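Hey L., structure's done. Input below.
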Amino acid sequence: MRQVDNHPGSGGSGRADPVGQLVATLEPNPPLVVDELHTATLLERQGVTDQEARDRYGCEDVFELAGEMFRRLPRRPDPPRDETSARPPQRFVLLTHGLLYSVPGVVYPAVLVEIGGPALLRGMLLATTLGWIWGMGTSVTAYRLLGQGYPQAAARIWRRLSLLGLGIAAADAMMLAATGAGDASLAVFVVLQMSFQLASGVLVFYGMEWRLAVIVLPTFVAGGAYLAHRYDVGHAVPVLITAVGTCVLAAGVAWWATGPTRQPRDRGAQPAPVRPALFSVLPCIAYAVLSALFLLYNTVPFVTAPLDLALAMAPLVVGMGTVEWRTHRFNIQAVELVRRARTTAEFHRSVWRLLLRELALCILTLASLGTLLLLALSVAGLLTPRGMLLVTTYLVLGGAYFVGFITVNHGHFSSILGITGAVLVLNIAATNSMAQYFAPYGEVPIFLASCVVLLALLLMALRLNIGDVHHYR
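Output:
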């Protein structure tokens, strides 16, 4: 780092030291910073640019100014380890999330026998969409409360919002059954799937993936046996009984995990900021709504399609744990890049290359899973060109999810909401007006084009801010 030569009295100028004055503005209670990275974050949030660092403080850029400031800040003891802080998730645990997400799909063939195709389709859409949106809102709220030092409040919010969500699901399912195909069994199906989605969210939140894996194992075995018997109607009931038991057991363990006596005490005497935490997740919920609509609108036509189309999403579902893991790896490696970079321009180039590399690894992993599926379908004589194209489409969508996760972590909701909403509208318009010209299953190429556009636009938006240091504190 180049020496800053404008200290008080240096060069006989008699001018006040600009860097010293900047440090003095942080007194008498300077923020706790542990390295140059945190100092650079502080400067960026105060609006200090590279140009200002050169013109006013005699440094090459914000990085150099941050290093100079960090050496001058008073040393403070390291804070005690927060017992409420979540431990970094392990790689293998993250990779198992994809399998856990796919549990409801194992039971769908047996549910189809019990309630019929139209009712299954309507119930699946309701349960999946509501569970996705409600689960994301609940988990983000709980994470915010936990991060602010309110573990008991986070557990209470899990319990209360989960019960409220199940009530809403039951009311919506009964209304759905009264207005179309389905009966009381449809409502039971919706409530059970919703309860499993919320319970699995609780267990993942508290790092209990292994317990969840043990709970769902019988359902995987029963569903696999049902498929092996080629959808024999006589074997559907044991699968359904096993699935009900899995949902009930998962809900019971989730209720136990959120018990007040299992959580550390909340910090301080002030009540937990539950209402601000709830309002702060509205952008996340909006993104979940748009993502769910985009996925489900383009997936519904293939639920009752030939097997290669119906199973095309399986590699994405199973590989979502990999997408989650690569997102986590990107965040860790980006912080390391900040600490090694000597200029903001160097960091911007390095972190962009890192993003593209992690994106390529995500798509490569999903492509490997997709290749296994295509080979199995080909051996069985069930593979069609449309099936190959749809598998490719979900690979691109997985890449878009990865970039979307990074964008959400950076807090740039205006760009991701605008892009996802615009692509959704264009996708619906194109499907309704052009699918007939690409038959059979003309929705597939339109879906692929929409996913490519979504990924490209998200990358363009992220390119503008990925080099901002404050994202990698």
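Residues 90-280 form one domain. Residues 295 and 397 are 9 Å apart (CA to CA).

-- N.
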